[in-house]
Amino acid sequence: MRSRPVSITEMRSETPTQCTIVLDWEPEAQPGQFVMVWLPGVDEVPMGFSSIGPSAAITIQRMGDATEALCALDPGDRVGVRGPLGKGFELLEGKRCLLVGGGNGVAPLVPLAEALVAKGCRVYSAVGARTREELLFIDRLAGIAGLAPEVATDDGSQGHHGFVSNLALRLMDEFRPDVVYTCGPELMMRKVADACWERSIPCQASLERYMKCGIGLCDACACGRYLVCRDGPVLSGEHLRGVPDFGSFKRGPSGVKVPFAAPGGGGSIGIRLRSED
Amino acid sequence: MDGPDISVDLCGVLMENPVILASGVLGETGPSLLEALEGGAGAVVTKSIGPSPREGHPNPTVVTLGDSLLNAMGLPNPGMEAYAEELEWLGRGSEAPVFASVFGASPDEYAEVAARLAPLVDGIELNLSCPHAKGLGAEMGGDPAMLEQVVRAVVDTTNLPVLAKLTPNTGDIGALASAAERGGASGLVAVNTLQGMVVDVEMAAPALANSYGGLSGDALRPVGVRCVHEIAGMTSLPVVGVGGISNHIHALEYIMAGATAVQVGTAIRTDGPQLLGRIATDLRDWLVDHDHSSLADVRGILVGGGHR
Q: A164 and A114, same structural domain?
């Protein structure tokens, strides 16, 4: 499919470093799918949906030229959209679901929570960020699930002092979820997936890789034997088990392996990505 | 294998079937090469590899046009040292034939990369034809004298078969084929993508960040078949046909026009690499339906008259 132009109806500042672009566009998207967003002369980057419906929205972590330029747009401006692409979250009915989101990775979990609640699921969530100012969509998740998310901050400014993965482990044992959905920094997701494997809980993780074609041709977004654009971005814990890349390295634009930074080690490694790492 | 023989001896490289993963599609990592082989490819060609890491062009790098595609990836690759690790990984998981696609900015660079990867592969394909990377690919492969130098430099550095992949962005592909033969190539591959441009009218911008790209897929097939037909009629070298193949009928077009084997790339985006095995199976079934015992029965049946 070709990229097509859509107008921006609203710009929102969500946190000091994250903005939401609301689009005059109603894509037939599943929670967890992504779209290639094009700003001519700047870049075309993969973005998850933070809202699906009559006014689709994307929520962007400002971290480079493309994301800064996107957050500097105004209502009435246009961007090109190519999508929805990829495979989203598998929705289950009537289950106890735990959603674990870190940083900007909380964004696609919001439409997921809406879809799960509509399918009669009980939705618990754990949300993490570096500081309380960077916590994303706490109120939206509370409103959808009827239950406030448990919160973790790296600096302890709100909720659990530490990583959301540690908080998630505790919640797994308290809530006994039937399924865990996670999106965020890959080291966090790896810890969550490891804990799920140990407890025999199915999990689904939404991955992020540098993308070029977005349609399964160029191999830029390889994660082991999977292409994140074609087989993901959501991959099941079952699939990810045994993939050496998962939680270990991604590939830069040239295909060179780029190790994930250790937790708390900053994370900016100078390549354009959809959310923080 | 029961049924007609579709195995191929391509310059001494033995393949179970003639369907090869084309360079540029998947092939940047060991696991994707393995996926293509497990999907039934007779052989695979790697992404084009140069001496050092190269990020390629900024996005957008592709624009789809129905069953065709314009791309300007810009030869992204991790460089020969990092890529050698991918091939070492693959070598532990598969014995099927692998060709390394190689590019450089000079004959010496081509030779350097070919020499580095040669111990890990079964053959070398020279990318003399990438139309959208400045100073590389077609800018060298469009000049017969330069092309001959590149081929010779690589042939002198390795005992592996060396295939020269030719550009269709020329008025005389025969001259390029002859130059490759003079340089000592073991075989020819035709064709790479055709230069093109797509404008996004609403955005009033080129659809690709690089403005110009290479056209592949359905629209390229008649161009490729014609080029294969011409060069198969003028050289004794085996020719590999590539451009717009998405089923066995397309493959047979190339084979009847003189191709020894075929490569498939763009069509994989819809069907995944299992498409490669499916084309091979359908090819065998077609031969059965037409009472042929071997692919050799139909290969090149259109070559040798009325095409010059």
A: yes
Residue A213 and residue B62 in contact, taking contact as beta carbons nearer than 8 Å: yes
**Whether A176 and A250 share a structural domain:** yes
pLDDT one-digit tens code per residue, B178-221 = 999 999 999 999 999 999 999 999 999 999 999 999 999 999 99
The verdict on A24 touching B (C-beta cutoff 8 Å) is no
Q: What is the distance between the alpha carbons of residues B248 and B245, in angstroms, rounded to a whole number?
A: 8
The CATH number covering residue A213 comes to 3.40.50.80
Q: How many residues belong to chain A? A: 277
Which residues of chain B does A80 touch, with a Cβ-Cβ cutoff of 8 Å? 200, 203
Q: What CATH number should be reported for the domain holding residue A47?
A: 2.40.30.10
Q: Given CB atoms, is B119 within the 8 Å cutoff of chain A?
A: no
Least Cα distance to A181 among A119, A224, A139, A229 occurs for: A119
A273 domain-assigned:
no
Q: Mind giving me the DSSP string for B76-112?
A: -B--HHHHHHHHHHHHHH--S-EEEEE--SSHHHHHH
Residues A139 and A56 grouped into a single domain: no
The answer to whether the Cβ–Cβ distance between B62 and A43 falls below 8 Å is no
Min Cα distance B283 → chain A (Å) is 24
Residues A16 and A146 in one domain: no
Domain end (from A38, A63, A85): A85
B54 interface with A at CB cutoff 8 Å: yes
Q: Say if A248 is an interface residue toward chain B (CB within 8 Å).
A: no
The residue count of chain B comes to: 308
For the stretch B246-295, pLDDT in tens is 999 999 999 999 999 999 999 998 778 999 999 999 999 999 999 999 99
Domains in chain A: how many in total? 2
Per-residue pLDDT tens digits for B77-119 = 999 999 999 999 998 777 889 999 999 999 999 999 999 999 9
Q: Which residues contact A72 (CB under 8 A, 6 or more apart)?
A: none
Classify each residue of B171-189 as buried b or exposed e, where b means 16 or more C-beta atoms within 10 Å of its C-beta: eebbebbbbbbebebbbbb
pTM score, whole prediction: 0.93
A127/A177 same-domain check: yes
> Are residues A71 and A178 located together in one domain of the fold?
no
> Beta strand pairing status for A78-85 and A4-15?
antiparallel
Q: Is residue A200 a part of any domain in this protein?
A: yes
Q: Catalytic pick from B34, B130, B223, B268?
A: B130
Out of A32, A57, A85, pick the residue that ends a domain: A85
Let me know if domain B8-297 sits in CATH 3.20.20.70: yes
Q: Quick one: A48 and A117 in the same domain?
A: no
In the annotation, is B11 catalytic? no
A274 and A32 Cβ atoms separated by less than 8 Å: no
Domain that holds residue A117: 96-259
Claim to verify: residue A21 and residue A121 sit in the same structural domain = no
Residue B55: list chain A partners with CB under 8 A.
252-254
Query: Given an 8 Å threshold on Cβ–Cβ distance, is B79 in contact with A254?
Result: yes
Query: Which residues does chain A have within 8 Å of residue B269's beta carbon, measured at their own beta carbons?
Result: 213, 215-217
Quickly state the pLDDT bin for B134 (edges 50, 70, 90): low
